[in-house]
Amino acid sequence: MVDSSEGRNVDALLPWPDECFAPRPKLWMRLTAGYLGFLTLLASGLGFWALLSGQYRSAIFLFGSGVYSGLVTSLSLRLLRTRRQMSPTAITLGKTESTEDGVVIAYSGWLYSCLAMLILLTLVVLTDLVLSGLAGWQLPLFRSPPGVVSTVISSAFGLYFLWIVIDMVSGRLARGRVVLSPDGIYHRSLTFEHFAPWHAVYTISAEDAGVPLIVAKVSPCNHTRIHRTSWVGTQQEFKLLPSAAVRAPSLEVDPAVLYHALRYYHAHPEARPELATEAGVRRIQTGDLLEL
C-alpha cells in the first residue's frame, strides 16, 4: 500500500521483527494441502461426469464433496501464508465491548467464513446420514443404507456440530478483532473476550508457538477482564491469558502493522488519546509507527 499524502510504501516502513511472522509449514502440511486440492478437482470432475450421465443424486453428492474439500483446501492454504499487504478497510474506528472508542484491526474474517461453511456442510451430511439410517434410504455411491452404529455415531457428531452452529448464530462464536483504545487492548477471539489496560502491559513480542503469534505480555491486575463466550474447544491463545496473543497468519493486515502499533502506543502514552479518533486510524493505516 502507498501513502497518498507522502508517496511512501507502507510495507517498506514496517519490517517484520527478527522473530519472523512467516509460517514455516512442514512437508506433510504442504503435501496435505496438495492432496486436498487434488480431491477437489477429482470430486468436481466426477460430479460433472455424473451430471452428464443423468445420475443427478450422485452429481449433487460429488459436487458437494468438491465444495467441502475446496473449502478445506482454501483454509489450509490460508494458514500456510501470512498476509503482507495492508488493507485500509481492515483498520477502522470502532468500539470495545465496553463501548469505548478505539482503532479496530480485524482478523480471521476469511477463516471464520470458511469454518462456518464447513460446519454447516458437515451438519447437512450428518443429518442426511442419520435420516438415511432411520428411514433405510440408500445414499449415493453407497451399496446399502447406513447401519445402526453409523447412525448413532452420526447422531452424536451431529449434536456437537449443531451446538457449534447455535453458538455461531448467537454470537458466542465470532470472528476476531483487536481494538486499541486509549485505556488498553481489547481482543475478541473466537471463543473469548479479553481486555488488558496499557499500564499492565510490560512488553510486546513476536513468538513462535507452533504458529506465529503477536503477544502483549500482561501482568495480572484487577482491571484485566476475561470473558469466555463459548466452550467449544480451547484455543491456544486462551492458555496464554492474561497476556493477549493474536495469530499472525489470521490477521487481515500485515502482522507487522499490529506488532508495531502495539509497540508504538505502549512506548508513547501521550499518543494514546488519538486512538479514539480518526488520527489513530490514519497513523496505523499509513504506518507512521516507527521511531526515527
Structure characterization notes:
The protein is of the alpha+beta class. The protein has three domains: 69 residues; 129 residues; 65 residues. The protein has a six-stranded antiparallel β-sheet, sandwiched between helices. The chain has a three-stranded antiparallel β-sheet with strand order 8-9-11, covered by helices on one side. Strands 1-2 form a two-stranded antiparallel ribbon. Strand 3 and strand 4 form a beta hairpin. Helix 2 packs antiparallel against helix 3.
**Major sheet attributes:** 6 strands, antiparallel
N- to C-terminal separation? 21 Å
Q: Strands across the major sheet, in which order?
A: 3-4-5-6-7-10
Number of strands: 11
Secondary-structure element sequence? EEHHHEEHHEEEEEEHEHH
The number of helices is 8
What is the 3D form? elongated
CA radius of gyration is 23 Å
Number of domains: 3
Low-confidence stretches: 1-12
Give the % helix: 40-55%
Structural class given helices, strands, pairing?
alpha+beta
| Proportion of residues in β-strands | 15-25%
Question: Kindly state the mean pLDDT as a whole number?
Answer: 81
Question: Could you name the key traits of this structure?
Answer:
single chain; 8 helices; 292 residues; alpha+beta; six-stranded antiparallel beta sheet; elongated; 19% strand
Task: Note the topology.
Layout: E1 2-3, E2 8-9, H1 10-13, H2 27-52, H3 56-79, E3 91-95, E4 101-107, H4 109-135, H5 148-170, E5 176-180, E6 184-188, E7 192-197, E8 201-208, E9 212-218, E10 225-228, H6 236-239, E11 244-247, H7 255-267, H8 278-286
Antiparallel strand pairs: 1-2, 3-4, 4-5, 5-6, 6-7, 7-10, 8-9, 9-11
